[in-house]
Amino acid sequence: MSDTMPGADEQPPGPPPGTPEPHEGPEEPAYDPAEPRSLGVARSATGNTEVDAQLSRLADVDHLATDGHIEVYEDVHRGLRDALTALDARPGPPAPAPSGPYDNRS
After folding, report:
1. Is 18 helix (H, G, I), strand (E, B) or coil?
2. What is the pLDDT of residues 43-101, one digit of tens each?
3. What would the DSSP string read from start to end of 27-92?
């Protein structure tokens, strides 16, 4: 007696059932970036001209592909950091003079 089923040897050679067929023709690109478009983020004035100039520079990314955003962001970050550093360097009112060597209240 045989354990094989009749007609089992009649299957055509090929990939197993459920295997996707190979794609023929030109390969599609793996990455297809979308066109640049404005995010529509409102920017309001801060009152500091240096900071406002840097914030308005952020509008440049609306016209760039995402690959170009990092350069603008780094430039704006550098400009904002310089503006904050300049605020610390400006002379302010003089410090109050000490009242004496000791302030005895007893």
Report:
1. coil
2. 888 898 999 999 888 888 888 888 888 999 999 999 999 998 988 876 777 777 766 66
3. PPPS--PPPP----------S-HHHHHHHHHGGGGGGS-GGGHHHHHHHHHHHHHHHHHHHHHS--
Convert the pLDDT of each residue in 15-27 to its tens digit: 666 666 666 666 7
| Tokens found for residue 78 | 């550098």
Distance CA 93, CA 67 (A): 46
Domain ranges of the chain: 43-89
CA distances from 25 to 28, 29, 41, 59, 67 (A): 9, 13, 42, 41, 29
What is the pTM (predicted TM-score) of this model? 0.50
- With beta carbons less than 8 A apart as the criterion, state whether 50 and 86 touch: yes
Question: b/e map of 70-79 (b: 16 or more CB within 10 Å)?
Answer: eebeeebeeb
